[in-house]
Write a structure and sequence with these properties.
CATH class: Alpha Beta
Number of strands: 11
Low-confidence stretches: none
Number of domains: 1
Distance between the termini: 25 Å
Order of helices and strands: EHHEHHHEHEEHEEEEHEE
Pfam families: Methyltransf_11
Largest sheet: 6 strands, mixed
Bound molecules: zinc ion
Structural class: alpha/beta
Protein name: Methyltransferase type 11 domain-containing protein
CATH topology: Rossmann fold
CATH architecture: 3-Layer(aba) Sandwich
Number of helices: 8
GO molecular function: S-adenosylmethionine-dependent methyltransferase activity
Radius of gyration: 17 Å
Strand content: 15-25%
Strand order of the largest sheet: 4-3-5-6-11-10
Helix content: 25-40%
Length: about 220
Amino acid sequence: MCGGERFAHHDVLWGNLISQWELSQEEAAYINVQQGTACVGCGSNVRSIALADAFLRYHESPSPLVEWVHAPLAQSLQTLEINEAGTLSGILKNIPHHRLVRYPEYDMMALDLESESFDIVLHSDTFEHISDPVKGLKECRRVLRRGGACVFTVPIIVGRLSRGRHERSPSYHGHPGCLDEAMRVHTEFGADVWEVVLSAGFSECRIVSYCYPAGIALIAVA
Ligand SMILES: [Zn+2]
């Protein structure tokens, strides 16, 4: 993000969420790193950095995001951000053709946006809150031009398969005691997360590791 190399950490998961999610100690530890280890310079956590890393790799950029936004390509790229994509949001808003729509005001399963109108779609830890993930990603694909990409993060427990929470007790992200429907978890993603990407009609799914297993991002190529 900023090129900084100093990090600070605080745990963000709470007991009830860990038990609903049935995380082992090791799994809880890496999700805590994903969400709670952050650059001292710009405040970006591992989740945001992994997303920026995948985004920059897709564009074959050797520069951190704060410098990339001044590159010639950045001036013409049509980007769509669904919900603030972590700390990328504050940096990407400086490029000319950037659009931010917010979840849940904008329904990811029925985006009120023209087809094939963006080069990049970004979202970060929003996808697990969408009731039909394939439908959500199909919409991301619809608004992308051919060869464009949806770059996103979602919490992934790498040692198990994805499971829906529809048959389980409601679980919410955000903070302990949160009952906001928009923060309700519909899918707990696992090692088969790529399957949702290909089911949605993308031609390619790249899984990019910034720091495994805490910092993983996906590039879905349309
Ligand atoms: Zn930084």
